[in-house]
Design goal:
ATP-binding; Tyrosyl-Transfer RNA Synthetase; ligase; tryptophan-tRNA ligase activity; binds adenosine-5'-triphosphate; binds magnesium ion; Rossmann fold; 331 residues; aminoacyl-trna synthetase; two-stranded parallel sheet
Length: 331
């Protein structure tokens, strides 16, 4: 049977890229009654400096956002990573079989460390913690964006290395990528880049909790090109194609249906249509997020009960690992 694990960092406000690329996939898997464990991976987020007050706020906002988007804690396990001790413990054990060159070559590390004068050790070992997140639950499938493929590969390697040295323990986890139609949304300011929480320019992304006039402004100002027709050509017209992807996602319409309906519009007029569609799609989600944020006790209760279930599963794995390593005595 499949067991799915996935995580999201509480590094900032959820944008449409996260929603489409990650959360919407999770909701779909949840509706298929998959055995699924979802974590707000706060320990990953502190690999780069975080303001403590903002981080706490972001953790609760992330929980509220996931629930508002349809994640149902009675169907899946939703928890905060740092509430479950097995992650860091297992991460240490895996770190002892992982080599430094293996980590130094990972593109995400190279990218994130490139501009830093002093590189935190945590940033370097981040993928080992990610492997521990997945293996602690013996997950078989990991829905992730394509940017994460190399990290899952590392997880597979560490699982195999552990199994070879200490006996069969972990299944090999496989990636599930979101449908290839719009694998990733692009920055509204620079369609060559992906939409990111950590992009310094907030105009580059549409956040789920942006007020309607912000959404309209950001889409109106989004970088497209000098052709006025609305056509879907991701290679040559990535900006317009990105708007069409967003439009298709929030309306459920197909790309060809959208292009057909926009035949008589120029890109300026089309942007207003996209903005309208986004605003009406996110309005009910925004209402739910704000209601949930007014009920902090409920959010904490959800996270605590998730952590309890996650602890039970991950502790069993940890005991097995400690036993295999020779750290555990039976009496
Ligand atoms: P950061 O800039 O802090 O890395 P992020 O926007 O990349 O933030 P993550 O928390 O790293 O978000 O990723 C959460 C999930 O969202 C992952 O599954 C990732 O693949 C997916 N994701 C992130 N950006 C996009 C995007 N632009 N389009 C589609 N999916 C995305
Ligand atoms: Mg990212």
């Amino acid at each position: 049977p499949r067991r799915i694990f996935s995580g999201i960092q509480p590094t900032g406000q959820i944008h449409l890229g996260n929603y489409l690329g990650a959360i919407a996939q999770w909701v779909k898997l949840q509706e298929n009654n998959e055995d699924m464990i979802l974590s707000i991976v706060d320990l990953h987020s502190i690999t780069l400096p975080q303001d403590p007050k903002t981080l706490s706020k972001n953790i609760l906002e992330m929980a509220a956002t996931l629930l508002a988007c349809g994640i149902d804690p009675s169907k899946v396990i939703l928890f905060q990573q740092s509430m479950v001790p097995a992650h860091t413990h297992l991460s240490w054990c895996l770190g002892c079989i992982c080599t430094m060159p293996r980590l130094a070559h990972l593109p995400a590390y190279k990218e994130k460390s490139a501009n830093l004068k002093d590189i935190p050790l945590g940033l370097f070992v981040y993928p080992v913690l990610q492997a521990a997140d997945i293996l602690a639950y013996k997950a078989t499938h990991v829905p992730v964006g394509e940017d994460q493929a190399q990290h899952i590969q590392l997880t597979q390697d560490l699982a195999r290395m552990f199994n070879n040295r200490f006996g069969e323990t972990f299944p090999t986890p496989h990636c599930i990528f979101p449908g290839s139609d719009f694998a990733r949304l692009r920055s509204l300011r620079d369609p060559a880049k992906k939409m990111s929480k950590s992009d310094p320019d907030p105009k580059s992304r549409i956040c789920l909790i942006d007020p309607p006039d912000e959404i309209v402004k950001k889409i109106k100002k989004s970088v497209t090109d000098f052709t006025s027709e609305v056509t879907y050509d991701p290679e040559n017209r990535p900006g317009v194609a990105n708007l069409i992807s967003i439009h298709s996602f929030v309306t459920g319409k197909t790309v060809s249906q959208i292009c057909d309906e926009a035949k008589n519009l120029n890109t300026g007029q089309y942007k207003l249509q996209v903005a309208d569609a986004v605003v009406s799609h996110v309005a009910p989600i925004q209402k739910k997020i704000s209601d949930l944020l007014h009920n902090q006790d409920f959010l904490l209760q959800v996270l605590e009960s998730g952590a309890e279930k996650a602890t039970e599963i991950s502790e069993a794995t940890l005991q097995e690992v400690k036993d295999k390593l020779g750290l555990q005595f039976k009496r």
